Amino acid sequence: MKLASARPVHTRLATACSAYLSSWWSILLFGAMILSLLPTSLNKKNRHACAHHLVDSTVLNLAWFTVLSALISVVLIRIVIVTALSYGLSRFAIEMVVRVLVLELIPLSAALFVALRCSLPDSAELAQMSNQGRFIQMRRLGQDPLQQEFFPRVLAGVFCVWMLGALSCVMTLLLTYFAMYGFTPWGLPAYTRVVGQVFSSAVTVILALKIFFFSLAVAFIPMASAYYEELIDASQRRTYFATGLVAMVRLFAVLLAIEVISLMGNYY
């Protein structure tokens, strides 16, 4: 039996769309607030917290990601080279490896790794602090949670994606050279010529922009979900798992959209 007070379908649809757009607008507002703190948050008072999160997020994950990406890259490079040789397309093997690994898989895997290892756990931690009233206590003491807790973690997430992505791309290029030519310098001219043909000015700009927007998405979206958790009524707050799940879905959707746009820019 339907309730008399049930709203029409179009009203519920409009409410859902409004809430969806409002959530994305809130993320943009959070990003604007973080960027507005950039000139003042790197002062002497907040520098120690920023340095701590930078080291904690980057150094502790650098070894793990380097080892994993090296192992995966070696396997994929070997598969591509053997397949190309079997079809008599050895001259295209380097270009295929660079385009598949360096341009597409490595940046995306770096962003996902940082999200799963740093941004999403930090978001859950901040959401827990918000539900415990820690941020209210900080404001009563004259402290700004956005500057002291959120900004260092956002900065660490952005820097970690840049560092892991850049290091893994360089390492993959070196592994590709060693797999093709071995430990000899005689193949360097031919190798650099092929890599230079792949990395045209447009492709290089698209790769840099993709890593940049990946880092912003990884750093901002989970933290924004935790920041606005404090503004939700206590009876309507989600669990830490649900908060992290919503942030993860939004983050993966943005990463997928950025990857699709970069593919269109590179190949269309």
Describe it.
- The protein has about 270 residues and is an all-alpha fold.
- It has one domain (about 45-265).
- The protein contains nine helices and no strands.
- The protein has helices spanning about 10-35, 40, 45-85, 95-130, 135-140, 145-180, 190-200, 200-225, 240-265.
- Residues about 1-5 have low confidence and may be disordered.
Outline:
The chain is mainly alpha-helical and 268 residues long. 84% of the residues lie in helices and 0% in strands. The chain is built from nine helices and no strands.
Class by alpha and beta content: mainly alpha
Largest sheet: none
Task: Indicate the overall shape.
Answer: globular
Annotation, overall tally of beta strands: 0
Count of DSSP helices? Answer: 9
SSE layout:
Layout: H1 9-36, H2 38-41, H3 44-86, H4 93-131, H5 134-140, H6 145-181, H7 188-198, H8 201-227, H9 240-267
Helix pairs in contact: 1-8, 3-4, 3-6, 4-6, 4-7, 4-8, 4-9, 6-8, 8-9
Transmembrane segments: 20-38, 59-84, 154-178, 198-228, 240-264
InterPro entries: Permease_MalE
Organism: Undibacterium parvum
Task: Please tag this protein with its features.
268 residues, mainly alpha, disordered N terminus
